[in-house]
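Readers of this paper often ask what the protein records in our data store actually look like. Such a record has a labelled line for the sequence and another for the backbone structure tokens. Nothing more is needed to write down the fold, since each code stands for a local backbone conformation. The record that follows is passed on verbatim for readers who wish to inspect the format.
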Amino acid sequence: MKREYGKEQVYFVGGGLASLAGAVYLVRDCGFPGQNIHILEEMKILGGSNDGAGDAEHGYVIRGGRMLNDETYENLWELLSTIPSVDQPGLTLREEITQFDNANPTRSRARLIDSTGEIQDVSSMGFDMADRLALGKLLITPEPALGKMRINEWFAPHFFTTNFWFMWATTFAFQPWHSAVEFKRYMLRFMHEFPRIQTLEGVTRTPYNQYDSIIVPLQQYLEPLGVDFTLKCTVTDLEFKDGDGITVTAMKVVRDGVEDTIQIHEHDRVIITNGSMTEGSSLGSMTSAPGINGSKGSSWKLWENIAAKKPGLGNPSSFADHVNESKWESFTVTFQDSKFFDLMENFTRNRAGTGALVTFKDSSWLMSVVLAFQPHFRNQPEHVRVFWGYGLFPDKVGDYVHKKMCDCTGEEIMEELLGHLHFTAHKDEIMATANCIPCMMPYITAQFMPRLNSDRPPVVPEGSTNLAFIGQFCEIPDDVVFTEEYSVRAARIAVYTLFGVNRPVERISDYPHDVRTLFSSVITSFR
């Protein structure tokens, strides 16, 4: 029998992937009326960290790229299998992405480049026996025993010189000082990728950037259903019912600079994206460095405010108060011709546009670049080329431009990159049409900081009657943050729990207990 919801309302705080997924689950699996779903977003556009903006004239910007995975993004694929493609009528979004990826598979032939510009042989992981033993021991050590231990407190210095570390760290953005627990979770969750980490064949790519390929179709699916998208609206605080339980009674908001209060009535629900990896991001240009905005934005402040009022809502300080350890810098480069792409295809032997990651292992910035399939934006002209890159050590001085990456203009970042590629003979021709826009992100790996299990709130905290958390800073046992899957899984758990949906969430694939995967991983560790 269809449930009647009457005047019940659901408020999502934050307009990223998790909230959009949650709205789909409400409509699809709960029969909840779209006009009673409200997505409150501080920015003037939806998508959160799944962004993609700009144009050919002023330059395109992608703060971060997202690599998908067929085998482990269980809930994301289930969700997208019910969303229509925007570009190919008759296909689902899942089918469209699979079709595109099959036609343009990722296979890196130049995963690591050394200081001389030579492509490294990465068929060996480079482990010694101490590395293998430490890695094996980590995988069987319970998380509570690891606590807030860092990766470099578990492994000896040699581990961080191996091909494996350079490839794994730059694929997933791990730093030596990040959480050993998160590193362990990644090793278990992506164990099937360990034997092919040198080629990245397990990476699934979308036809365009994730904003155009995932966010836009989700928004276009929800809009005709009457879902309310309230943009430029900041939620600053929640009010709770007195007592030991957790029941939200009001939301404090600022709309267009005006303070207001939204009353939360009985049977209403509030679903919050707490924290943000791209909060406080700042852009530079060809002639200016991006600077760093270390001040906490609204998502962090909201979490701090409510965590101070009720126990069991996590500890944002573990993630937000370590900018020097959570930041790195990305850059998006727009060209008006294909010269750079042609040179890269010839040098790396990677077919242009396959999205193969190339890392300059001896770079003091630990710089990497990805040349995705073109066009990478819906509004990108045919002659324009766009690629994305990043440096994990923005506070270190460059090897060719003797400045810290964080102090460099887009032009200087390009000079450093061309130096590592040894493309100096072509510098003038490349730079003639280059527009490099750097982006500093203070909290981009905040979710990897050492933490206790209690530092991230459960999706639905104990004692909650109408409050849930989604995004990258809630706790889902055994799953890995910094993924699209984590956001979607959190949203599904939140909706199903708050509404009592008797339907299973897609389970986490159990590759660590698959004999073939285990055998292949052991063999790989001895390569």
User: Anything to note?
Assistant: The chain has 17 helices and 19 strands. The mean pLDDT is 96. The longest strand covers residues 233-240. The CA atoms of residues 161 and 403 lie 24 Å apart.
